[in-house]
Known about the structure:
globular, alpha/beta, 5 strands, Rossmann fold
Amino acid sequence: MANRDNNIILIGMPASGKSTIGIVLAKALRYSFIDGDILIQNRTGMTLCDYMEKYGNESFLKLENEVNAGISCERTVIAPGGSICYATDALKHFKQIGTIIYLSIDYDMLEDRLHDARERGVVLEEGKSLLDLYNERVPLYEKYADITIAEGGSTLENLVVKIVSELTRRKLI
């Protein structure tokens, strides 16, 4: 079983920078990097959008939970998809194998970055707006996070420094 303190899991809204920050953070720490969405695409042989279109959001959420709950690694930065906040089994697993960091982004910045949520493969129920989704997910991210890092317009490099500093301060790396 992996030591709880040697993996870092980045959670947050789609377009919050989980994958981009994760890659740079992994390089800075000399960790491996796993993108949860890529794992799902590799397993299904389909893009997230195509999978959701063919099988529906509920099937996707079940698959996302299963795939992420099955990740076994050490010294790895993991960036699951934004809908991981609904994946109870995966989040319990992540709590056991690492430190969960919520990359907090304000709604205006999210809206600027994410023009068409459905084209991006975002699990968005019919009739729900991006703001509805944001308001629904933020409390879930906060609930599961060990650490919250507010992006607040910081550069990629500054965000990585913030994360490393906080992990170091808490003696997690």
